[in-house]
Amino acid sequence: MKKELVIIGGGPAGLAAAIAAKENGVNEILILERDHELGGILNQCIHNGFGLHTFQEELTGPEYAARFIEKAERLGIEYKLNTMALSITKDRKVTAVSAKEGMFEIEADALILSMGCRERPRGALQIPGYRPAGIYSAGTAQKLVNIEGYMPGREVVILGSGDIGLIMARRMALEGAKVKVVAELMPYSGGLKRNIVQCLSDFDIPLRLNTTVVDIAGKERVEGVTLASVDEKGRPIAGTEEYIPCDTLLLSVGLIPENELSKGIGVALNHVTKGPVVNERMETSVEGVYACGNVLHVHDLVDFVSEEAACAGRYAAEYLAEKRSGISEREVSRIPVIAGYGVRYTVPSSVSVDRMEELLTVRFRVKDVRRNCFISVYADNKRLVHIKRPVMAPGEMEKVMLKKKELQAYKTADSVTVKIEEAED
Amino acid sequence: MERKELICICCPMGCALTAEIENGEVCRVTGNTCPRGDAYGRKEVTNPTRIVTSVVPVRGGTSGMVSVKTASDIPKGKIMECMNALRGIQAAAPVRIGDMIAENIADTGVDVIATKNVDVLQRRCGG
Amino acid sequence: MTDVIVIGAGVCGTAVARELSKYKLSVMVLEKEEDVCVQTSKANSGIVHAGYDARPGTLMAELNVKGNRMMEELAQKLDIPFVRNGSLVISFEKTASELERLYEQGIRNGVEGMKILTGDEARAMEPNLSKEVKAALFAPTAGIVCPFELNYAFAENAAVNGVEFRFDTEVKNITKTGNGLELDTNQGVYRAGYVVNAAGVYADVLHNMVSGQKIRITPRKGEYMLLDRGVGGFVSHVIFQEPSKYGKGVLVTPTTHGNILLGPTACDIENREGTNTTAEGLSEVREKALRSLPGLPLDQVITSFAGLRAHEDGHEFIIGEAPDVKGFIDCAGIESPGLTSAPAIGLYVADLIAALAGPERNPQFIDTRTGILDPKKLSVKERNRLIRVKPEYGNIVCRCEMVSEGEIMDAIHRPVGARTLDGVKRRTRAGMGRCQSGFCSPKTMEILSREWKLAQSEIRKSGKASGIITGIVKEDRKEDSE
């Protein structure tokens, strides 16, 4: 089987990428989706709050997904459900398997990686204690409740105040469970501020910062967990232990981009994001292979996933058009985009001034909570951007726009650096 | 004059609002970056409301559950009543987004509607 | 009345049962848990030891070396992963006296091919070894085996050859009768001519029920960490440090499935169910493993666990008929190298019973077993043929380990099949990978529920009280609103 573009993963990223590619002239597109429906994790995110940027209205996850699914259907984009991509090669051959079609190979001219991410499990945290039933990652619990309709527990402690943890605190409370506490290792919540209000405060669920789980009791089913305060390095402080009886521990302790397929073909990964290193075209280190969505870096809002994925789809379409017309990727010089002071990472990691569009969105996250600071962008020593922000937190993705016009003069710069600067009095 | 600190929940920005209250009425909201924040600040103090989302079982569908929401905000104090009223309610496939699942939930004047399409499960006839 | 009842479906109990099924004997295995391989046998290093550790002249030394030699053929016959990758005992001391002692001991125990290496020679074999390593004892006959599959293979093969398994059956008391022994269990009374006590950390409890010559078993906890398969190439041999009085110390080893395993610690405890990990234990594992291999990618830990070794006061296998109880055969104190020795222990115990009971050989004995079919090992053509016949083999359930629905169904329906999530996990690896069952557990639950015709609320992780779900959405909420 041959396709111009194969997209691995039919969640929000894959759908937006497919739609953009189709709208930009790619005819033979195939989305491979491992689940029995398109939409990815949005299908289990039944809460509202999606789509304000994209549709200027507040939608639930399934509604947001449905808009993209309907559009993809309308555009006649081909997809295969219940189909797992097993491996890919550097020359973009995809091997996949499904019950219906068995194992098959697709030769693609371009590939978009949009496999999403997975949750960090308990084991990765090395929380001591027993290994009973009743410990779930928040997303697994969300699937059980919202898709399967089963309650995973009655008395719940949640570790991690990322958005999924907060959303699940409310969800469990709504369905009648007692959520005793949300514990957070860091001195701040990893989730959106509004989720603290509407998921915790509304339901009188306490949030304990600088706190972690240091023991899990119960050999077969969770019987309780021991919480302890942590010092500034995150180490439990002896004497602060408190035992909380519960039958369930939900973990919302981080998401990891799923790059096993990418690693198989040597796609260079960023050690901070654990996602591929991409240039301004969302292209990875392997020619013709693009990445977008949570496989690239973990997002806070699906609206930004759609936006980023649409770019990837558009650039993949451009690449295919150039390939068709015999233009091979010109040797382009790229300036590295560097995460400077206070910034954990940037996407993209490099920019070509010649190849960039008039405006380039650089997304990043800050290292810790910042108030009244500036986001600054420097080309070598020259400051190009300086924007004041009242507050920035690691839980929320930030962005800054680079103008081609402004960068023209710095084509030979050694680097473009995004950093945080304190307010100058 | 009384002041109340709020976090706006209208969008992910989460603006820190201050509502100034006089004689039980909000006279001023500051800290918002858009008009919706102003409206939220006024309402949150006097009559807080929320959208409620949940799932209900669906018969004969490609999924066992269908996600639902209140078609608009309901009073915050009615959330659990709304959840209780959803008990025992079942939908039947096919369900389309926007289909009414429960009318005038918990006497709020607001309907509960489906937020997901669920098609009819095509069962193969056994020989 | 059964000819032989084996108490305990761990690796020793099932090895014994399989060997006994070579005779015309009625054999039954009683297990207090709901599956085979759920206690000590499931949480150990999975090492096939060369045999230089045990004191020469002990049963432990004899059965270790013998078990090691049996493993290759057994692995082939029973279709279990086994690799003879060799081990290194590394020394940070300038004088390699401890290594020399082990070497001498190994020679006396009959271990072949050992060699003492310089630090550089060891690093040439294992480039990530610490620069501080001054010398190493290389034993090429050491290897690794999948401890679960060895246990399941014994059990399945025993079952195929007529051995009956009774799960959730806990022996509460044992009494001598005129012509054998009577076992009181929570599932009624069982009578047998011979009883094999392979009850792991409970072996002393059972022994002491019926024998006046008391023994004592101490649960010795060992904590472990497992690294993602993605970093599996980091070591290729089993790396030990010099032994201490509590055993062989913290090792680092590849597993037969390509992960890296670190551990165990050694800490004597009271609680025979105390399989919890501890902050101290895990940090000891980290520190000691890093001493051997300073570059170990500890950020790739996917899970940690603890197992209990059945340590007997004399640190020797107690295998044989209790002196004061005719027909009661102990198989107690089976700590490391218990897994290695298990095949030899099975043979030893079966020979012993055969000598006492004089049974005929079972001419119908089938000595091979086929493991769960792994589609990944097939050619594309074969795999597609398989999927056409049984489409479930094309439906990937566990994406981390790429396990299909077909494999999970096989695990459930084969002899002594899986009944729980952990049972499926240990048989198929579904849920064993980097996401630790986050993605696949709902689907695996659905398959278990469908195949066993059980409600989802009856699906358990491991153990009677280990239900996964506690209710149905919209059906278990409080009536009153707040």
Give a verbal description of the structure.
The complex is a heterotrimer of chains A (425), B (127) and C (482). Chain A has 425 residues and is α/β, with parallel strands linked by helices. Chain A is 23% helix and 34% strand. Chain A has helices spanning 12-23, 52-55, 61-74, 122-125, 138-148, 163-174, 193-200, 260-264, 302-324, 404-407; strands spanning 2-8, 29-32, 48-50, 59-60, 78-80, 83-88, 93-98, 102-113, 117-119, 135-137, 150-151, 155-159, 178-183, 207-208, 211-217, 224-229, 242-245, 248-251, 255-257, 289-291, 335-339, 343-347, 350-351, 359-366, 370-379, 382-392, 398-403, 416-422. Chain A is globular and about 65 Å long. The model of chain A has no long low-confidence stretch (mean pLDDT 95). With 127 residues, chain B is an alpha+beta fold. Chain B folds into two domains: 2-47, no CATH class; 53-114, CPE0013-like fold. In chain B, the strands form three sheets. Chain B has a five-stranded mixed sheet with strand order 8-5-6-10-9, with no helix packed on it. In chain B, strands 1-2-3 form a three-stranded antiparallel sheet, with helices on one face. Chain B is elongated, with a radius of gyration of 20 Å. Chain B starts with a strand and ends in a 13-residue tail after the last strand. Chain C folds into three domains: 2-41 and 148-215 and 314-357, FAD/NAD(P)-binding domain; 81-142 and 218-312, D-Amino Acid Oxidase, subunit A, domain 2 (D-Amino Acid Oxidase, Chain A, domain 2); 376-474. In chain C, 30% of the residues lie in helices and 23% in strands. In chain C, strands 1, 2, 9, 10, 11, 12, 19 and 20 form an eight-stranded mixed sheet that branches. In chain C, strands 13, 15, 16, 17 and 18 form a five-stranded antiparallel sheet that branches. In chain C, strands 6-7-5-14 form a four-stranded mixed sheet. Chain C is globular, with a radius of gyration of 23 Å. Mean pLDDT of chain C is 96; it is low at 477-482. The chains are: A alpha/beta (425), B alpha+beta (127), C alpha+beta (482). Chains in contact: A-B, A-C, B-C. At the A-C interface, helix 4, helix 5, strand 11 and strand 15 of A face helix 7, strand 18, helix 9, helix 12 and strand 23 of C.
